[in-house]
Design a protein that fits this description.
Blueprint: H1 2-19, H2 26-48, H3 54-71, H4 77-83, H5 86-92, H6 101-121
Helix pairs in contact: 1-2, 2-3, 2-6, 3-6
Length: 124
């Protein structure tokens, strides 16, 4: 239940971050969104499989996100067509940026802390 609520909160924050614009707020939409992306992946996996070890989920989602980022350097026609759709563009991105990596690691770290907090707050 707490993973589902956390997923909804992170998705709302991620969507809100994309609306951030103006001086000083562009980094929220462009970079901080990467942390929300990783967090959403962590909470989605844990919502679907709550018995998984959270450290492995966080690291697995981080690895998958890094692979998706590197895949943005690859441009076959079928993948470009997929990226051209709204869901594909949101999930796969379109442009490789080294600057995204610190935010992916930030999302992984926050995910580790957040999931441990959930585990401690849950009744045994």
């Amino acid at each position: 239940m707490r993973y589902g609520a956390s997923l909804m909160l992170v998705l709302a924050l991620g969507i809100a971050s994309q609306a951030a614009n103006g001086t000083g707020w562009n980094w929220v939409a462009r970079q901080l969104g990467g942390a929300f992306y990783v967090l959403a992946g962590v909470f989605l996996v844990l919502f679907l499989w709550p018995r998984c070890r959270t450290v492995w989920v966080c690291l697995g989602v981080l690895l998958a996100t890094v692979l998706v980022e590197f895949a943005q350097l690859w441009h076959p026609g079928w993948l470009q067509a997929l990226r051209g759709t709204r869901p594909g563009g949101l999930l796969l991105g379109s442009t490789f940026h080294w600057a995204d990596f610190p935010y992916y690691f930030l999302g992984c770290g926050v995910g580790l802390v957040w999931t441990r907090w959930i585990a401690q707050a849950s009744p045994s």
